[in-house]
Amino acid sequence: MESASSLWSGVNSGIVLSLLAVVWTMLWQGIQGLQLQNLFSRHSRRLSRRLAATLDPYLTVTIAEYDGGRMRPSDAYKEAQAYLQRATRGAGGGVRHLKAEPDRDPDRLVLSMDDNEEVADEFRGAAVWWIAYTSAPRDDGGPGYFWGRASRAERRFYRLAFLERDRDLVLGEYLPHVRRQGRAVMVMNRQRKLFTNISGGGGWDSDGSWSHVVFEHPKTFATLAMDPAKKKEIMDDLDAFRGAKDYYARVGKAWKRGYLLYGPPGTGKSTMIAAMANHLDYDVYDIELTSVRTNTDLRRLFIETTSKSIIVIEDIDCSLDLTGKRKKKKKKAEDADGASKDGEKKDGAAAAAKAEEKVEEKSTSKVTLSGVLNFIDGLWSACGGERIIVFTTNHVEKLDPALIRRGRMDKHIEMSYCCFESFRFLAKVYLDVEAHEMFDDVAALLREVEMTPADVAENLTPKGPGEDADTCLAALVEALQKAKEKAMAKKAKEEAAAAKKKAKRKAKEEAAKETGGKAAEEAKEAGEKAVEEAASEADEDDEEEEDDDE
Ligand SMILES: Nc1ncnc2c1ncn2[C@@H]1O[C@H](COP(=O)(O)OP(=O)(O)OP(=O)(O)O)[C@@H](O)[C@H]1O
Ligand SMILES: [Mg+2]
Question: Which residues are listed as membrane-spanning (predicted)?
Fold first, then answer.
């Protein structure tokens, strides 16, 4: 923006424009009258156009935030917005009403012109004026209505006014200049964002679109504990994806990649997503599927995502009726309900399960497996590229194979319990210790006990000023020993239960054998008796027959 303030005195321009508007309206009516009278006269039409150009030397270009039924904000609008932020630098560039948003620098604000404000600009001697305005929400079912936000919300616009004589310069050079500069500003001001589809009030009352906060997760691959070879493989995979635009275009695939992260709770799945986002410098869209009403809403949400983003669905097995888990939960509630007669403790379980179900019922989503599949690789993934989709789950075996087949979830990454390598890594990160006499104990215990990286990390975190590497490692060893004892006790209990079950089964079998044998003997005896009786009866009959013959 070249010296905005030198060009336009806002007050004067407003008055002049208003006067011109009044004069022009009157004249335009006159011209239309002229046109009506000479409707079929080409000459008069040319004349009226020339007259209009003389009286109204201003041309305008309007850039709408959503236009032509678009489902997401137009890039041109965002670029113009970023470009105009520069015009309001410092004291606001003469603009009287400004909008402020937080800047990267926590002490500063990014200022932009508010609605119905004007800002002037100059480009190679040509003066131009930008005006920001909004129009009232539309509920007319017109283009974009179906998609919600574009129509239901206020519609925002920028209007650029310039002189007729600068038409070629403005349209041919100034507007491309604005877009280029706007993009540069956007890159400069870019703050990574964490989007979620649960806004303010959340649930069904919300308009089901994205709201965001600045993404500031500190986790990186440098602080993520996992097998180094596996970690390198993932980082290489991400780098290859980022640079593979041409490859994806050449093979005709949408520029996207799916990752499935699975493993027990606390093994670093969510942490891995943060590390991925930090590594790639991408935004994160965290979809809460239970808050998405329909497949159509899911599609809309997806379309509103920008490129260079990671789209995350956590605990996919719990989010949808993809796996039957929901029904199981219901069953759990019933079971707990039935069991509740047995004691108070179980009453609590029934109540908890019921409450869980209640929450679930409230947010019953009609998103289906096919909706999600469509979302991942259907037609919609063709709209814009450079997106990574991540699913996480604790129960990979419960997922529908269609959901996680390669091509949808291209890379399956297992996040597992802490091994000694991971422990050493965490000890370095958390305590800055690379070797310690207690390492051998930890190594031996980790071979016998399963502990998540989350638990190991927690033990390695100093809890007070008096705590150091020695105390933290001692705490970890103690926790591992306790876990080992617990595991051993559990194993012994399980073994005892199994032995009891086996003994019971054996006793049952023997009893069955015994009763079976006795029954067989009785049957045999009964059979023999019956044969004898039949034989004696037969003899008696013979004798009677013989008597009759005689
Ligand atoms: N591999 C790891 N490396 C470093 N820190 C870890 C690792 N795994 C877990 N942590 C720590 O444990 C905490 C919990 O981990 P995280 O939330 O990533 O687990 P999760 O696998 O997503 O669990 P859930 O299945 O319950 O969602 C994190 O704050 C992180 O600091
Ligand atoms: Mg998690």
Answer: 7-28
**Which residue, 410, 381, 391, is CA-closest to 233?**
410
Q: What confidence score (pLDDT) does residue 351 get? A: 44
| Structure confidence by residue, pLDDT tens digits, 392-419 | 999 998 888 888 888 888 999 999 999 9
Cα dihedral angle (316, 321, 322, 323), rounded to 10 degrees?
90
Handedness of CA 377, 380, 385, 389 (dihedral sign): negative
Please report the DSSP string for 79-114 in residue order: HHHHHHHHHT-TTTTT-SSEEEEE-SSTT-EEEEE-
The alpha-helical segments, DSSP class H, found in 363-405 are: 369-377, 401-404
Note the ligand closest to the C-alpha atom of 422: 1
- Of 270, 313, 398, 460, the one to substitute when testing ligand 1's pocket (max ligand atoms within 8 A of C-beta) is 270
Mutation to probe ligand 1, out of 267, 450, 456 (largest number of atoms < 8 A from CB): 267
Which residues does the chain have with pLDDT short of 70?
Answer: 1-56, 67-72, 87-94, 103-104, 137-154, 199-208, 321-365, 378-384, 517, 520, 531, 534-550
Q: What integer pLDDT is reported at residue 361 of this predicted model?
A: 46
Query: What ipTM was predicted for this assembly?
Result: 0.98
Give me the pLDDT at residue 362, please: 47
Please report how the helices 420-431 and 469-549 are oriented relative to each other, as an axis angle in degrees rounded to 10: 150
**What was the pLDDT predicted at 313?**
92
C-alpha separations of 458 from 435, 452, 472, 476, 483 in Å: 19, 10, 9, 9, 14
Burial of 338 (0-12, 13-18, 19+ CB in 10 A): exposed
Closest CA to 129 of 139, 144, 117: 117
By DSSP bridging, strand 211-214 and strand 387-393 are unpaired
Q: Does the pTM of the predicted model rise above 0.90?
A: no
User: Any idea which ligand is nearest the CA of 312?
Assistant: 2
pLDDT of residue 330: 40
Sheet holding 118-123, edge to edge: 58-64, 155-163, 126-135, 118-123
* Coil vs helix vs strand at 195: strand
**HEC letters along 317-341:** HHHCCCCCHHHHHHHHHHHHHHHHH
Kindly state the tokens that stand for 378: 């259907």
Q: How far is the CA of 265 from the centre of ligand 1 (A)?
A: 8
What per-residue string of b and e applies to 58-95 under the rule 16 or more CB within 10 Å gives b? Answer: ebebebbbbbeebbbbeebbbbbbbbbbbbbeeebbbb
User: Residues with Cβ within 5 Å of ion ligand 2?
Assistant: 269-270
